[in-house]
Amino acid sequence: MGGAVVDDAPPGVKAPDGGWGWAVLVGCFVITGFSYAFPKAVSVFFKELIREFGVGYSDTAWISSILLAMLYGTGPLCSVLVNRFGCRPVMMVGGLFASLGMILASFATSIIHIYLCAGVITGLGLALNFQPSLIMLNRYFSEKRPLANGLAAAGSPVALCCLSPLGQILQYHYGWRGGFLILGGMLLNCCACGALMRPLLPPKKPLELEESGRAVAEEEKKKKKPQPKKKLLDFSVFRDRGFVIYTVAASIMVLGLFVPPVFVVSYAKHLQYEDTKSALLLTILGFVDMFARPLSGLVAGTKWVRPRAVYLFSFAMIFNGCTDLIGSQATDYVGLVVFCIFFGMSYGMVGALQFEVLMAIVGTEKFSSAIGLVLLMEAIAVLVGPPGAGRLLDATHSYMYVFLLAGCEVTLSAIVLALGNFFCITKKQEDQEAKMEMAVTASEKEGLNRAVEAEDDEEEPRERENGKMKAGEEAMTVKETGEGGDETQL
Fold first, then answer.
1. CA-to-CA distance for 137 and 158, rounded, in angstroms?
2. Based on the structure, what is the number of domains in the chain?
3. Where does it sit, as one GO cellular component term (predicted)?
């Protein structure tokens, strides 16, 4: 495989659920933070870029849009590279790309250069880190996977709370060019996180067992036909009803999920509140989100909830959608604060559960391909959702309709997921159970018939033996009777 160690979990190797897995979790925490928070943190430099290049706010907003588009849209490419070379080398190369993009952007002479460097190159680098880190987390954790997913997802609000103030400090002391250069150096930490993604190896065996195992394996290789190569991108996941339902629901959800965080600050300013007070709303949202994600993972890992994680995910989406619908009626700052608290709770639940549910649906083997295809579908929705809400705002000049639309989209996605899972997946499982029962019944009938036939076959020779025994006894009786007659005559 090009000299790379491909880190597919070897057959028979159980997920450690700890040990080095905690180091993998730390790396995933950092990567998730950079991937989700970086597009928002870069917006701190937009005013300086507008002055430097004489462009509008909509032109600078394309930097964050391109970053998100690369993070989501390159999912299939990441899947192919991971299946070809493994997670560790892909992540380390991705860390170099992410850092190189920001360093080159610090020397930009036009906004187009920043699009290409900070948008495309850095976005590609973050994508090459984000997806493989989730794949490795799935391989290292099984029983504790919901908790691990929740803790890793908490990296997003933590990084957002740290990177935004840091960006403001860097801009004040070093300007946007110095800030981009320092952030580029910070992104080199992605390479260190990639180095933590050690491939899972089978446990070591004694030398005698290894030699015997090799001999057996060589004999089996000679007998068996060569196995087909693993697909770089497995489209067979679309045959799974659960995956199709999840992909459709997730795509609808993303249309409205990211709209409230984008518009809530502008909503507060529209109500004539100060900039600092308005910006505090995002801090409140992020703080609540920070604690909601690990707690949601902890709840999802309980014995009673884990088999029903899909329905918990549906509840989280309904909770989020209803929060948007109720929050659209807010008319003062207190109402917006209450909205941000409940939105942070529901947003954290969705963030902690979305990939856990996908892992549970497709399994470890197909997860690397499934996540790439899901992210590609979500990329389209990410590019359509916020701009579509912006057009609705321009047409109506009312934030109420923007939040109502977002709430309806998220609630619809929850209904699609819950009903699809209940009617399609449950019915499919019942059909399979019925088939198994029929098969068991048929096999039992065959077994009974064979037992009856075997008993009949056994009875025939027994009857023959009994007949022979009776004939022998009769012959002996006749003989004895004949001898007795002869004696009487004498």
1. 19
2. 2
3. basolateral plasma membrane
